Amino acid sequence: MSPPDGWDADELARAKRLAARVRAGDDRASGAAQIFAARAPGRVNLIGEHTDYSGLPVLPVAIDRSTIVAAAANAAGEIEVANADPAWSSRRFAIERRIPPYRTSDWANYVKAAIQGVIDRFSARSNWRGASMVVDGRVPPAAGLSSSAALTVSTAMAFMALNELELEPLETATMVARSEWYVGTRAGGMDQAASILGRRDHALFIEFDPLRVRAVKMPANAVLVVADSREIADKSGTVRAEYNRRVVECTLAARILGRALKLDGVTILGDVVRAQPGWNAADLVEKLAAAAPARLDAALKEAANLLGVSQSELDAELLGEGSNRIALDTKRPLEILKRARHVLSETERVIHAAELLEAGRLDEMGKLMNASHQSLANDFECSTQRLDGIVEYARRGGALGARLTGAGFGGSIVALCDVADADAVIESIDRGYYAKLYPGAAPENWRAVLHAGAGASVIDLRANA
Questions:
Q1: 3-state secondary structure string, 147-169?
Q2: Separation of alpha carbons 271 and 9, rounded Å
Q3: d(CA 289, CA 292)
């Protein structure tokens, strides 16, 4: 069998091994006429960090690292999921209208999130086929490369295939993006859109509300060096709290700015931008500074007064309720001005970067990436000493630009390089960063030249194939 579109030979071999395990591990699956395998890539974001949940554009690429889920229908009406990595325990749960989550940080919560998202999207359906699934993830976890999105996308697509359900790619991306709120992270839709809509040798200029995507050709001489800082950025713990805190800060900035500009219905900064033709970041930041203090108390009393609403009403709207309620550290003020300054200036950089990349003006594109990292470090405060260090060594090695990628607080950096300079960039990172922190270690699995790959897809592996 030759690899189908979007799959390479290694991925097809992985899918066959997973299918054999599904058949061997479940008598109900062994006689199934069909076993589906869904692959979904991770992503690396070139520029546009922490803008997607404000409804503002991003510029990622799907990468040639993927998660594959093999699945067969079972008669139990349950989801049975195993992981090819023995470090992750198998799980079994019932298909219900409201699926209760496991404890925080359980890997299978992302599987539950995907199943719940499909159930919510097709809410009129009541007759669901259960699934026996095996997962093989090759996107490094907690490294800022969207391993969680790769898992939720591949799970959702496999489950839909088993239940003979189809959606257009844009609809699938929107569905899966919203489903990840199940795990308590108020993320935007970049990761899922990049995973589903990725295109080989192209970046994606992604806009939101509504979701739309334009492929941007990567110049032939451009390569991406991605390096893991080895500082874990796990969205299930402290990082999730910091991430959600910034969502609240950006939302408050949007509402205050909308009120100052006498705009109706503003909930995110993207609403402000779309209502202001000819906008620029500096003007909007100046207007926000005139309308509110740069910092507000985390109890939301000041913000409620500024917005003319009750404190309890604002609390419920911004923080939510129940198990996914955002818990703010009330001893720290909310940084309104700095967060908005990053998001709005980053949006300008994304728009310009797409134009530069398309024109092959990589030197200028690199400068925008450097400016993005500085803004993330100073205004969004999501960089770390380690991320700053590895970025600096990438630049010293000849990278045209380098920045953290993903939510930050650890994880990976991405460096834009001319193909002739990639080896020198990697050598600089190895010598200056890894050799100092991990003397004697072999860093080959911690950094790589990654390429823009194809988006997610599903194949049908016949039981006797």
A1: HHHHHHHHHHHHHHHHCCCCCCH
A2: 44
A3: 6
Reported as a pLDDT band with limits 50, 70 and 90, residue 440 is very high
pLDDT computed for residue 238 by the predictor: 77
Residue 198 predicted with pLDDT over 90: yes
**φ, ψ dihedrals at 347, nearest 5°:** -60, -45
Residue type, 416: L
d(CA 48, CA 351): 9
Tens of pLDDT, residue by residue over 148-193, are 999 999 999 999 999 999 999 999 999 998 877 777 666 778 999 9
Domains and CATH numbers, the chain: 9-217+452-462 (3.30.230.10), 224-234+340-450 (3.30.70.890), 238-338 (1.20.1440.340)
* 460 in catalytic set: no
- Please state, in angstroms and rounded to a whole number, the distance separating the CA atoms of residues 153 and 191: 10
The average pLDDT across 219-230 equals 96
Rounded mean pLDDT, 55-59: 97
More confident residue, 74 or 234: 74
Per residue in 320-376, pLDDT tens? 887 778 889 989 999 999 999 999 999 999 999 999 999 999 999 999 999 999 999
Cβ neighbors of 465 (< 8 A, separation 6 or more) are: 1, 16, 19
Q: How far apart are CA 27 and CA 376, in angstroms?
A: 51
**Whole-angstrom Cα distance, residue 234 to residue 231?**
9
CA distances from 151 to 21, 83, 90, 292 (A): 18, 11, 15, 41
Q: What is the pTM of this model?
A: 0.93
User: Which of these is catalytic: 26, 191, 271, 421?
Assistant: 191
Q: Quick check: 326 and 248 in contact, CB under 8 A?
A: yes
Tell me how far apart the alpha carbons of residues 285 and 276 are, in angstroms, rounded to a whole number. Answer: 13
Interior/surface letters 17-31, b for 16+ CB within 10 angstroms, e for the rest: ebbebbbeebeebee
In the numeric block, the tokens 């093989």 are attached to 136
Give exposure, 38-55, as e/b (b: 16+ Cβ within 10 Å): bbbbbbbbbbbbbbbbbb
